[in-house]
């Protein structure tokens, strides 16, 4: 059975800021890549995907994670592929990290979905909608409160 994990971001954590959330995304990517998992990061749009790719490139050499944007680089070349609405993974991936406001319509291709609930009220409502969509699709649901950096 596929799982969907929603990380709940509190206002008093570093992840409540854009830069703090991006650092946490890199942390999660490191964690999954160390387990040799194949990841797809679903961004809001092409610009967002390119910004995230730059954050990956700007990390310290010891923290660097090989990655590519959908359609760039070799098809099976990296464990991390970054896409956006309308761009599905170029090959089989195990985990999707959703950074878009919509649910990943192709989520059933993955064994694990990672999503986030922002502390902003409007964003919370949108995340609740995604939560309901995943649950309705048969995902085993889990929430994790982010309480520390």
Automatic annotation (TrEMBL):
<dbReference type="GO" id="GO:0003887">
    <property type="term" value="F:DNA-directed DNA polymerase activity"/>
</dbReference>
<dbReference type="InterPro" id="IPR007459">
    <property type="entry name" value="DNA_pol3_chi"/>
</dbReference>
<keyword id="KW-0808">Transferase</keyword>
<dbReference type="Pfam" id="PF04364">
    <property type="entry name" value="DNA_pol3_chi"/>
</dbReference>
<dbReference type="InterPro" id="IPR036768">
    <property type="entry name" value="PolIII_chi_sf"/>
</dbReference>
<protein>
    <submittedName>
        <fullName>DNA polymerase III subunit chi</fullName>
        <ecNumber>2.7.7.7</ecNumber>
    </submittedName>
</protein>
<keyword id="KW-0548">Nucleotidyltransferase</keyword>
């Amino acid at each position: 059975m596929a799982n969907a994990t929603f990380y709940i971001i509190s206002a008093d954590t570093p992840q409540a800021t854009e830069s703090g959330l991006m650092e946490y995304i890199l942390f999660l990517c490191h964690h999954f890549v160390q387990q040799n998992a194949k990841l797809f990061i679903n961004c809001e749009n092409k610009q967002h995907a390119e910004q995230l790719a730059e954050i990956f490139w700007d990390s310290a050499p010891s923290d660097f994670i090989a990655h590519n944007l959908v359609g760039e680089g070799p098809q099976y070349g990296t464990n991390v592929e970054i896409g956006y609405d309308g761009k599905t993974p170029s090959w089989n991936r195990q985990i999707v990290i959703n950074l878009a406001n919509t649910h990943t319509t192709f989520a059933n291709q993955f064994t694990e979905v990672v999503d986030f609930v922002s502390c902003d009220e409007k964003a919370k409502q949108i995340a609740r909608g995604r939560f309901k969509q995943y649950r309705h699709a048969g995902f085993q649901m889990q929430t994790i409160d982010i309480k520390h950096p």
